[in-house]
Amino acid sequence: MSKHFTLGGRFSPGGPQVLRAVDGVSLAVARGETLGLVGESGCGKSTLGRCLVRLYDVSGGAVRFEGRDITHLGEGALRPLRPRLQMVFQDPSSSLNPRRRVADLITEPLRVHPGPGGRARGRGEIRDRLHDLMDLVGLAREHLDRYPHEFSGGQRQRIGIARALALEPSLIVADESVSALDVSVQAQIINLFMDLQDRLGITYLFIAHDLSVVRQISTRTAVMYLGSVVETGDTETLFHRPAHPYTEALLSAVPVAHAGEARRRRIVLKGDVPSPLNPPPGCRFHTRCPKAQERCRIEPPALRDVGDGRMAACHFPNE
Ligand code: SF4
Ligand code: MG
Predict the structure, then answer these.
(1) Is the CB of 190 under 6 A from ligand 1?
(2) Which of 53, 166, 207, 273 is least surrounded by Cβ atoms within 10 Å, i.e. has the fewest?
(3) 283 lines ligand 1 (CB under 6 A)
(4) Same domain, 99 and 177
């Protein structure tokens, strides 16, 4: 799947440029699992997440949801699917209307989307559902008439999650959903996400630049670099034995999470991430890779099985 943006018009110097935000990514998220998606900012994680829930049209390839090709569905055909595909964003304050009370914010999706069979929901039904949702996300009912600014960051994220849950989604794309929170609050919200998955069977694509967050929540992890997925694997395998030099470098910057775990030698990557307007030929990582060889400058490596359930896009992966 690819998502390219055309920047500038025919009047811009040099004509329009194509930004390859997501370039030929193939990923599957199994029902009920959490796939963590990591990578530095600007690598295309958020774009990929938005394509998955069809907030963006894709430029090439396909998006399938529960066995159905939803790549080219128009807004009308997508509408009945929208409730099932939800996003939770980083900063709940920007997605919550400050002039509306919590009760209205959480129930808005219920009033916008009709219930099963296309019928409008009654007031009693909406109130019962509101109470269920507040209980699910751990918000006390006495808060119902308050406004978003009266809550802490963690509580606001609970409101955002309740809104996303209102229509019983089967997939939630969580895009940096805990990044703005203090570490202790992060842990509470991560626990909430996991608890909701146990109870409701929700599938997550959990996007984060913070690897320790992804490690806490994900069963599998995918690593992106410059619009491509460079490695996927079971989270613990990937954290213990990264196959791709980029994953290895990312992990070397993370403090040791568990007692007894060997400290990694810090790998400092040279240079900056190249522009997605003009990605390097061959392996996109070759300009910064400590293991790069001549072949890497010419031949793009395909994502392939490198053992232990890991897939890596590298000519010389770690065994
Ligand atoms: Fe590094 Fe070459 Fe592997 Fe790319 S293909 S990650 S440049 S060793
Ligand atoms: Mg992002």
Answers:
(1) no
(2) 273
(3) yes
(4) yes
Ligand 2 is an ion; its neighbours by CB within 5 Å are 46
ipTM over 0.95: yes
Q: What is the tens place of the pLDDT at every residue in 118-173?
A: 888 999 999 999 999 999 999 999 999 999 999 999 999 999 999 999 999 999 99
Name the residue of 244, 314, 318 whose CB sits within 8 Å of the most ligand 1 atoms, as the mutation to test its pocket: 314
Distance between CA 203 and CA 198 in Å, rounded?
Answer: 10
Residue 283 CA, closest ligand 1 atom number: 4
Q: Is 217:204 a contact under the CB 8 Å cutoff?
A: yes
Q: Burial letters for 260-297: b for 16+ Cβ neighbours within 10 Å, e otherwise?
A: eeeeeeeeebeeebeebeebbebbbbbbbbeebeeebe
Q: Which residue has the tokens 């806490």?
A: 216
pLDDT tens-digit readout, 183-220: 999 999 999 999 999 999 999 999 999 999 999 999 99
* Mutational test site, ligand 1, from 223, 250, 291, max ligand atoms within 8 Å of CB: 291
Residue of minimum CA distance from atom 5 in ligand 1: 314
Query: Residue 262: which domain range?
Result: 223-318
Structural domains in the chain (count):
2
Structure tokens of 238? 């990937």
Does 231 lie in the same domain as 189?
A: no
Q: Please give the Cα distance from 241 to 10 (Å, whole number).
A: 48
Q: Which ligand is nearest the CA of 298, by number? A: 1
Would you tell me how many other CB atoms lie within 10 Å of the CB of residue 139? Answer: 20
CATH code for the domain of 91: 3.40.50.300
| Alpha carbon distance 28, 82 (integer Å) | 19
What does the radius of gyration of the chain's CA atoms come to, in whole angstroms? 21
